[in-house]
Write a structure and sequence with these properties.
The protein is of the alpha/beta class. α1 runs parallel beside α11 and α14 runs antiparallel to α15. The longest helix is centred in the C-terminal third of the chain and has 25 residues. It is globular, with a radius of gyration of 24 Å. It starts with a strand and ends with a helix. Bound molecules: flavin-adenine dinucleotide (FAD). The site of flavin-adenine dinucleotide (FAD) has 41 residues, from α1, β3, α4, β8 and α11. InterPro entries: FAD-dep_OxRdtase_2_FAD-bd, FAD/NAD-bd_sf, Fum_R/Succ_DH_flav-like_C_sf, Fum_Rdtase/Succ_DH_flav-like_C, SdhA/FrdA/AprA, Succ_DH/fumarate_Rdtase_cat_sf.
């Protein structure tokens, strides 16, 4: 069987914000670049992002700056973040937003014509640059436009628009290939990627010394999720299988507000902008319950009365934020507790009301997609009645361990950016910090890959044996008449949702692990009847390997971390532990690839000038006695 072959300097897997920004950078640095995406070009998760991109431009409140943004990000991540990533992100996000504007993005404006910025949970000042509640769409449109502009340049220069940047859409990568010859070190170096065209099932091989993973998240391992079909953890699994490490996999963000009704749309996101723009959460008794759930570490920054919280929307200098705008992990747990206590809505959520808070015309102006979404999907007019909402699996904080400055993974030639990478958001991501993360680290990954290629002495080679193995693996489900892959998938989703969900216990996570082990065996035998032409059963059979690997990482790391922090809540270890904060959990595969092993790694201490941005009183809630003593010594 013929395998289509292509040769590039850099192959970017994923065409969301991270992938496009990486590809643009690699091409701008003169590298022949391919963008490969398993969905249609433009149909990535980024397109669904509603609220905006967080960047401390200070357009709405001039007190905002990178240091405030850095502090908010570290607090949101409960100090587990890779602080160098959080620093680069806070410093570079404004430039990346302005760059987008220069490339044609049309952001909403303030009255004096600057890019408008909105409030979001955990951000001290209005910080999210936005386009109504369709920011991701504008971001992707602008980056695509930039790709086209570069192609037009290439057409003029080389007579071929695709000479330096080409898109391969509806093309799924199933394996990364390495050159294992001793010249590339003991673990080998990236030499290319193998995949198939979804439309006709034909096989494709990319020969490239540098690969940027930008494949997004893992939500499809859970039943209730805001994520769409592409989020099967492919990049996470491809990295593991290539010998790279994943970090922070126990931290999954359950967004507090997903739709809960009707069942067919359960999990679809209700943007945080609803709360940022004044929406409030109420239980079945009509009580604004979030005031009962402000944790000790945040008490100083949040309003204690409804009146103060309400005044904050118009006078932020003299009032504290309402607790509806606590970081997402706090709000999700609070909703979970209210429902468990029997104070939920009829369909198992709570009420999110904006109808009594803003005039109807203002709701439609500020939240057009939400208005449309509820009208179309639930027959609810959000200008007249409250929405019913509940937690939904939304984002994975864990991902490929990368170098903060270059986005390089531990495998030579492998880079990762966006949701597939780990570290930036610590144990919990603040809303709006993903879109800016994609731009900041997408650019850095593209630059990192270009410099890596420039420094290479010789181009790594793909062996025939590696191609034969990748081909056999890809075609195997078509050659079996085994179990239906959908059944295995559904069982995995139920297992993860029920046993490794928002609240975790040792017995349940252990039970999940046993179940994942059995599902791994069953997945070996799944079959996909039919041909290779648009065969979704076959595609799912291949995605199962990835979802199972990722779920094993999540469950094993969740079992090991004996504390509650951000997107990891252990019923049996309810508090945050300063000792655990110094540790990162690292997942890698055993040499035979059969099992995930998880190890503890010590976090490097925060650089002196960065730790001094925090008050001692705040730090002592998070850090160990020893770290506090070091901090005191520094202050002397
Ligand atoms: P994506 O945009 O998901 O792109 C992944 C790409 O990888 C896709 O092109 C996909 O086809 C491709 N891919 C995956 N696997 C393969 C494979 N095996 N082979 C080839 N291609 C592959 N964040 C914010 O900051 N602000 C917001 O307002 C916001 N709102 C959100 C609303 C919703 C509904 C959701 C789901 C998320 C939201 N987020 C928001 C989070 C944010 O949108 C995502 O984290 C971010 O877009 C991820 O971008 P990415 O570039 O990493 O991946």
């Amino acid at each position: 069987m013929e395998i289509e072959r292509h040769e590039y300097d850099v192959v970017v897997i994923g065409a969301g914000g991270a992938g496009l920004r990486a590809a643009i950078e690699a091409r701008q640095q003169g590298k022949r670049t391919a963008i490969v995406c398993k969905s249609l070009f433009g149909k990535a998760h980024t397109v669904m992002a509603e609220g905006g991109a967080a960047a401390a431009m200070g357009n709405v409140n001039s007190k905002d700056n990178w240091m405030v943004h850095f502090r908010d990000t570290m607090r949101g991540g409960k100090f587990l973040n890779n602080w160098r990533m959080a620093e680069l992100h806070a410093k570079e996000a404004p430039d990346r937003v302005w760059e987008l504007e220069a490339w044609g993005a049309l952001f909403d404006r303030t009255k004096d014509g600057k890019i408008s910025q909105r409030n979001f949970g955990g951000h001290e000042y209005p910080r999210l640059a936005h386009v109504g509640d369709r920011t991701g769409l504008e971001l992707i449109r602008t980056l695509q436009q930039r790709v086209v502009a570069l192609q037009q340049e290439d057409e003029k220069l080389h007579g071929d628009a695709e000479a330096y940047i080409k898109v391969f859409q509806e093309c799924t990568v199933t394996r990364l290939l390495k050159d294992m010859s001793p010249a590339h070190g003991p673990g080998g170096a990236i030499a290319g990627a193998f995949g198939y065209w979804r439309e006709n099932g034909k096989l494709i091989l990319f020969d490239a010394p540098a690969i940027v993973l930008a494949t997004g998240g893992i939500g499809k391992s859970y039943v209730v999720t805001s994520n769409s079909w592409e989020y099967t953890g492919d990049g996470h699994a491809l990295a593991l299988l290539a010998g790279a490490k994943l970090i922070n996999m126990e931290f999954i963000q359950f967004h507090p507000t997903g739709m809960v009704w009707p069942p067919s749309v359960r999990g679809i996101l209700v943007t945080e902008s609803v709360r940022g723009d004044g929406g409030v959460l109420k239980n079945s008794e009509g009580k604004r319950f979030m005031f009962d759930y402000v944790p000790e570490v945040f008490k100083a920054q949040y309003a204690t009365t409804e009146e103060e919280g309400d005044r904050w929307y118009t006078d932020q200098a003299n009032n504290r934020r309402p607790p509806e705008l606590l970081p997402r992990d706090e709000v999700a747990r609070a909703i979970n507790s209210e429902v468990k206590a029997g104070r939920g809505s009829p369909q198992g959520g709570v009420y999110l009301d904006v109808s009594t808070r803003l005039p109807a015309a203002e709701i439609i102006r500020r939240l057009p997609s939400m208005h449309h979404q509820f009208k179309e999907l639930a027959d609810v007019d959000i200008t007249k009645e409250a929405m019913q909402v509940g937690p939904t699996c939304h984002y994975v904080m864990g991902g490929v361990e990368v170098d903060a400055d270059t986005a390089a993974a531990s495998v030579p030639g492998l880079f990762a950016a966006g949701e597939v990478s780990g570290g930036m958001h610590g144990s919990n991501r603040l809303g709006g910090n993903s879109l800016s993360d994609l731009l900041v680290f997408g650019r850095r990954a593209g630059a990192g890959a270009a410099s890596y290629v420039n420094a290479l002495a010789g181009r790594p080679k793909i062996s025939d044996e590696a191609v034969t193995d990748a081909k056999a693996e890809a075609l195997a489900p078509l050659q079996r008449s085994g179990e239906n892959p959908y059944e295995v998938h559904h069982e995995l989703q139920r297992t993860m949702n029920e046993l490794v969900g928002i609240i975790r216990k040792e017995e349940e996570v252990s039970e999940a692990l046993e179940s994942v082990e059995k599902l791994k065996e069953r997945a070996q035998g799944v079959g996909a009847a039919g041909s290779r032409i648009y065969n979704p059963g076959w595609h799912l059979a291949l995605d199962l390997r990835n979802m199972l690997l990722v779920s094993e990482c999540v469950a094993k790391a969740a079992l090991l971390r004996q504390e509650s922090r951000g997107g990891h809540t252990r019923d049996d270890f309810p508090g945050m532990s300063p000792e655990w904060r110094t540790k990162i959990l690292l997942c890698e595969l055993t040499p035979d690839g059969s099992e995930v092993i998880v190890q503890e790694q010590v976090q490097p201490p925060m650089r002196d000038d960065l730790i001094q941005l925090f008050d001692r009183d705040e730090l002592k809630k998070y850090i160990t006695e020893k770290e506090l003593a070091d901090f005191d010594a520094l202050a002397k």
